[in-house]
DNA sequence: CCATGAAATGAGAGTAGCTCTCAAAATATA
DNA sequence: TATATTTTGAGAGCTACTCTCATTTCATGG
């Protein structure tokens, strides 16, 4: 977020963002890579920020300069802008469930293609480490706020109305559960199918309810 | 939890639970009261566990013996068993939305009658303090697991199925948003009406969707 | 009423996440 | 090359939280 606004200072878009920016990206990535490796070796709780800093060859202060909390090193992703753009690009007459299916599929395909192991590790930590799960839920709530902006545009409803807020958060709650389910069952299923099934539930209610 | 199992050691149920149990309850209450008072005076972050211990006239160790985290001192409530009992007691043919309306109403009436200020303070902290909100969401997820057990009994669905899990969590997500909304709007509305409206959204979808 | 066993408490040391400050180093700019 | 700005590292400090062990408080049986 910060880097995006700081990117264009005064000059036009340069292909090379300058040494400073490049180093920052490298440092950020080094910290995340070190964190993932250490967690795989020792588990989350046993991994201290000091160890992360050491392996990433930076000081502990620097780690906290890049990530506000230890959990954020794990869960931070940058798909929100992509998802929102995709969301607004969907045709006007498409049902919200179909819209979300497309959007989620796009985000998941990107994420799984780019770093499949990390995607799985993250969801697993979401199950195993309460602090990580909590941070995920926070991030989910933030995405929910974005979602309801977009849904407000589509539907013409007030984005601050209780109804839209409840709706958006219930969708996000359901999607969060998909992530938990996927990880708890050992990532056996195709998560995109799980998402589709979840959105079917949210759209049509539970199946096999007495008619 | 611990106290409940330890309650009946060998003798029959006594009206007076013994001096030890009574003292424990008093200590627990003293800690919570001290916490609420200090938070009102100074805010959440500025209130340290040491201060809480001092005002409650116990040692800091004792505070952590009674509550696993500082957030738990604030958010712990004991309505889950009540709600579950109420849930199972509803007539078989009632819709799940109506069931939940009744259950939530019962819980809210109890909570508001017993300690209205605390109920409001809690929801307010859920908006203002990320750590408290996170803990609330955890507790919400736990309630969601109970909810899906009960819903499984009613519907005959597998409690571990993705569908039921998604459904239960989406309901809890929606209810969580009600709490946020209520606090953000200064507790102006009747929260029981808000709950009803939220459950209507969850049952019938958003209003004014194009037909 | 007293002795014995069990539970609750307090004191204190220790860990680790996180914040803040300030000086040194790296980079951009002129 | 000189100067201004940004980034970093070192270190001190706070606090939530854990663990251990001695002391106190309550329960129980004689």
UniProtKB/TrEMBL annotation, chains A, B:
The ranges of region (Disordered) come to 1-23
> What is any Pfam family matched here?
TetR_C_14
Q: Key word Transcription regulation present in the record?
A: yes
Arranged from A to Z, the UniProt key words for this protein are: DNA-binding, Transcription, Transcription regulation
Annotated HTH tetR-type domain residues: 25-85
Q: Which InterPro entries match?
A: Homeodomain-like_sf (IPR009057), HTH-type_TetR-like_transc_reg (IPR050109), HTH_TetR (IPR001647), MftR_C (IPR041347)
SUPFAM superfamilies per record: Homeodomain-like
Which is one GO molecular function term here? DNA-binding transcription factor activity
Stretches of Low complexity bias are at 1-12
Please give the DNA-binding region boundaries: 48-67
Q: Which PANTHER family match?
A: HTH-TYPE TRANSCRIPTIONAL REGULATOR BETI, HTH-TYPE TRANSCRIPTIONAL REGULATOR RUTR
Q: What is this protein called?
A: TetR family transcriptional regulator
- Lineage of the native species? Bacteria, Bacillati, Actinomycetota, Actinomycetes, Kitasatosporales
